[in-house]
Design goal:
Blueprint lengths: L7 H8 L7 E2 L16 H5 L8 H9 L4 E4 L1 H8 L8 E5 L5 H8 L3 E5 L13 E5 L11 H12 L4 E5 L20 E6 L12 E4 L2 H11 L6 H12 L1 H24 L6 E2 L3 E5 L3 H10 L2 E2 L1 E3 L4 E5 L4 H11 L3
Parallel strand pairs: 1-11, 3-4, 3-5, 5-6, 6-7
Antiparallel strand pairs: 2-8, 7-8, 9-10, 10-13, 12-13
Helix pairs in contact: 3-8, 4-5
Length: 325
């Protein structure tokens, strides 16, 4: 099992600080997510069904009909490696560690490359996996570069897998196309921008033959009825989406300035988090934890990821904790 952010109960127990007294900045999830309404009682009584409007809402939001829902993008991450025979897979690293684990567990040869190293190895690769924008570095690769990689891979039956879990606030950079070409596979999630990590809804976007295979592998009722309804409504709420993108961008800039003021200048980030690289990463994380501020420490990389505080109280708590470093 890999370590992830969001383990707040375990951290609260470790530091003997009540759960209610923490601010959790460890996940990169929008702390002011889409407001979930009370659902109709029959949604809890019935099995999930196609034709409930979720596909229509997702197609409208993502701009393509070539889409299938999954139980979070994690379900697709674990299933994709099982749909290919053993091959050479490049992971643009560092990134969300579940990608590498899934391909290794399925028996593939996994290689790690930085983004500027991929081009020189493309002729030997069958699959390239990239998180864009990257988690945790915040690196955003240009669509033109990714299109070039896809073209070279697709010529020989290869795949370019792009995890766009953090793309919503920079949607113009997405590689989603109305008519998805063969060999391009894109993962999206409602967990980050929409702040709906708990509903476990994600989407896989690809050309139709691949989607049909994926649907067979996922089986019936891959996403629960209540989760489908929440996702449908959230994807259709254009007013909330229009307001949320700029607010997250502004909050992220505020976080960048606050960290820089405290001599922790970020080396990258997205609308939902900022990354700090420091030899003192473990010590900084410990100081913050003793103040009830939970950040994501990447121990093997001397790296910390700071998510966004939920409200002014959270901003003040973070500011005070940072002053102790």
């Amino acid at each position: 099992m890999l370590e992830h952010g969001g383990r707040l109960r375990a951290v609260a127990n470790k530091y003997s600080i009540p759960l209610s007294q923490w601010i959790d900045l460890s996940t990169g999830i929008n702390p002011n997510g889409w407001p979930v309404p009370v659902l109709k009682s029959e949604i809890w009584n019935r099995l999930p069904e196609d034709g409930d409007g979720l596909h229509v809402a997702a197609a409208s939001y993502y701009g393509t009909q070539k889409i299938v829902e999954t139980a979070g993008s994690q379900a697709a991450i674990q299933l994709l490696p099982k749909l290919r025979k053993s091959c050479q897979v490049a992971i643009v690293s560092p990134c969300y560690a579940e990608h590498e684990l899934a391909w290794k567990n399925a028996g593939h040869e996994v290689l790690r490359f930085k983004s500027d190293e991929v081009e020189q190895h493309l002729d030997q690769l069958d699959v390239v996996v990239v998180v864009n924008p990257n988690n945790p570095t915040g690196e955003l690769l240009a669509a033109g570069q990714l299109a070039c990689w896809h073209e070279q891979l697709a010529k020989r039956g290869g795949w370019l897998v792009i995890d766009e879990a953090f793309m919503d606030a920079t949607e113009s950079e997405s590689m989603i196309k109305k008519d998805m070409p063969e060999g391009l596979i894109i993962l999206r999630s409602l967990g980050k921008f929409f702040g709906l990590a708990g509903v476990r809804v994600g989407f896989l976007i690809a050309e139709n033959p691949f989607l049909n295979n994926m649907k067979e592998q996922l089986g019936p009722w891959a996403v629960s009825g209540p989760s489908r309804e929440v996702a449908r409504q959230a994807l259709l709420d254009c007013d909330w989406q229009i307001k949320t993108g700029p607010r997250l961008q502004n909050d992220s800039k505020r976080l960048e300035k606050l960290l820089s003021y405290n001599k922790l200048s970020p080396s990258g980030g997205t609308a939902l988090f900022q990354q700090v690289i420091s030899e003192r990463a473990a010590a900084i994380s410990e100081i913050l934890a003793n103040e009830g501020v939970f950040v994501r420490l990447f121990q093997d990389q001397a790296r910390i990821r700071f998510g966004l505080p939920k409200d002014e109280r959270g901003w003040r708590r973070l500011e005070k904790a940072l002053s102790l470093i």
